[in-house]
Recover the amino acids of this structure.
């Protein structure tokens, strides 16, 4: 038995995904060259794992033999920010306030693949491989090719209905599905708008669609394992984990809708704010994991989160003294 693209999208929606687009696995020359240029300029900082899979990231055929289709999936995570940050607290990026999204999406993908295989029949031999964020895949480029949106100046994939507050995941498969039309170039693009570029405190967005991760607050507070320079520390402000500034100012995000996925909300994780004194009082890995286990905040480890807390305390003190 075969399955149509329409049916796959129907099953994706029933599995909890907010977006689903389908495309073909051919290399996207412009995206591949853009990625190579970015690597050659060392904009990835200390994330060496990004540079290690250059060929696999740009060529889905190296990820699965006889791949015919790429199923791109989106999951809305938007939550509203509180108008003010309490004194002595650091703000957590919108996407990280609840349960670890890798686990949330993993469960939904497994359900989707179960339903697809059930529909196809037990004797079907089609293959599937999937990733959430961590795989060797140019997910935003293939998301645009699958019609989910276009890549903005801040490198976020921007969707007509949801703005940019959504996770991406991908399934490569030997199923041959009718692809969606790519997002039409010129329709709803950024145009002359440069709000995200001007709003970035560290000037990390250095060109249209080019972010120097070494300056990005999200990179600094999550991925950077070493100390952060004073110049950049002063510009981190109150973000203890991640950053939403370039999305907050994006005009397309007036369309952002509060997520219906409760497991991504504050009640299922650390919440919007973290007490700096509490973070600094953690004495060992066990105490750290008691606070962060099952959330994205395990990523910087105890030493990274405490480094961030010290930076915010200093920033708040300096602001008080101004």
């Amino acid at each position: 038995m075969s399955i149509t693209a329409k049916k796959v999208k129907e099953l994706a929606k029933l599995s909890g995904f907010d977006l689903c687009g389908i495309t073909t696995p051919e290399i996207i020359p412009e995206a591949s060259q853009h990625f190579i240029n970015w690597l050659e300029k060392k904009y990835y900082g200390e994330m060496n794992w990004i540079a290690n899979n250059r060929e696999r990231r740009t060529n889905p055929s190296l990820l699965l033999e006889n791949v015919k289709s790429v199923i791109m999936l989106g999951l809305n995570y938007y939550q509203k920010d509180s108008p003010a940050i309490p004194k002595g607290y650091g703000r957590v990026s919108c996407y990280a306030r609840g349960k670890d999204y890798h686990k949330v999406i993993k469960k939904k993908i497994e359900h989707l693949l179960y339903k697809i295989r059930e529909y196809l029949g037990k004797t079907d031999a089609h293959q599937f491989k999937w990733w959430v964020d961590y795989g060797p895949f140019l997910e935003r480029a293939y998301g645009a090719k699958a019609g989910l949106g276009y890549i903005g100046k801040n490198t976020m994939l921007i969707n007509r209905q949801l703005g940019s507050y959504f996770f991406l995941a991908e399934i490569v498969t030997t199923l041959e599905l009718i692809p969606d039309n790519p997002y039409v170039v010129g329709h709803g693009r950024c145009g002359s708008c440069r709000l995200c570029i001007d709003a970035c405190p560290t000037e990390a967005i250095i060109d249209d669609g080019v972010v120097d991760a070494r300056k990005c607050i999200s990179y600094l507070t999550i991925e950077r394992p070493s100390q952060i320079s004073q110049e950049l520390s002063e510009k981190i402000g109150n973000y203890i984990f991640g950053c939403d500034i370039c999305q907050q100012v994006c005009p397309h995000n007036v369309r952002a809708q509060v997520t219906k996925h409760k497991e991504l909300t504050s009640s299922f994780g650390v919440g919007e704010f973290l007490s700096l004194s509490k973070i600094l009082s953690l004495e060992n890995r066990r105490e750290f994991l008691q606070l962060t286990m099952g959330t994205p905040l395990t990523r910087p480890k105890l030493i990274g989160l405490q480094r961030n807390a010290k930076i915010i305390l200093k920033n708040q003190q300096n602001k008080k003294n101004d």
